[in-house]
Write a structure and sequence with these properties.
Blueprint (H helix, E strand, L loop, with lengths): L1 E9 L13 H16 L2 H4 L1 E8 L15 E6 L5 H12 L4 E9 L15 H16 L3 E4 L5 H15 L4 H11 L4 H8 L3 H10 L2 H19 L1
Parallel strand pairs: 4-5
Antiparallel strand pairs: 1-3, 1-4, 2-3
């Protein structure tokens, strides 16, 4: 059976003094907390394997800089994939993340406790996606959709370009849309006005972005069957 693997890797945070977060150790801790929050709802998110943090490592196995720490997970379906991605984005802001999604077989036994030690096409595709994002600076990439790969690449590149201008309120507003929250709930959670929520939806074309992700989730599910 084809599985869905997500690898999220940290980028250099824009406008953030690394010392303010005490370097990579604090970033790894923040990433672990974000992953743990998702793991507590693993049934909701359809996680076969929980989010597992893999720290960035430099010379002599010492922690490296902020860039390159990652978290991995295996999903049963893509129904809540983008909600999980944007929960990570919201939790980690202003640290930026790259998201590589791979669809394919997993050749090793599924480990229900950790993503470490598993191998196969799905992991290879997710890793290649992250490596290509490292080269072009985009945010999201999917590999393993066969003839749809090129179309999805261009759609996600457009969304990545839009996403670079989003502040935390827009990320939170979009997350609320993915989670089917009411505007009142989003206002309460983000501490912004109702007008600000609607402005973020309008100026960010969030309805169109949500539509793309919903269709893409269906593409992924169809391919994974």
């Amino acid at each position: 059976m084809r599985r869905i693997v997500l690898i999220a890797e940290t980028c250099e945070p824009r406008g953030l003094d690394e010392r303010a977060l005490e370097g990579s150790a604090a970033i790894n801790e923040k990433l672990a907390l974000a992953g743990s929050g998702l793991n507590r709802r693993r049934v909701k998110f359809g996680l076969i394997t929980p989010f597992t943090v893999i720290p960035s490592v430099g010379p002599a196995n010492m922690p490296s800089n902020i860039e390159g720490s990652e978290v991995q997970a295996v999903f049963r379906s893509a129904n809540e994939l983008w909600s999980a991605i944007f929960e990570l984005e919201y939790a980690m802001f202003p640290v930026r993340l790259r998201f590589g999604i791979g669809i394919g077989e997993i050749n090793t036994a599924i480990n229900p406790d950790s993503a470490i030690g598993m191998h196969g096409e799905a992991f290879d595709n997710a890793r290649e996606s992250v490596e290509s994002l490292n080269k072009d600076g985009k945010h999201y990439r999917v590999q393993g959709l066969a003839e749809r790969d090129a179309l999805v690449l261009h759609m996600l590149n457009l969304i990545s370009s839009m996403r670079k201008t989003w502040r935390v309120a827009r990320i939170g507003t979009f997350l609320g849309m993915l989670k089917k929250q009411t505007v009142a709930q989003t206002v309460e959670l983000l501490g912004i006005s109702e007008q600000a929520v609607y402005r973020n939806i309008r100026d960010g074309e969030l309805g169109a972005v949500q539509g793309v992700f919903l269709e893409l989730s269906q593409f992924i599910n169809d391919t994974s069957r």
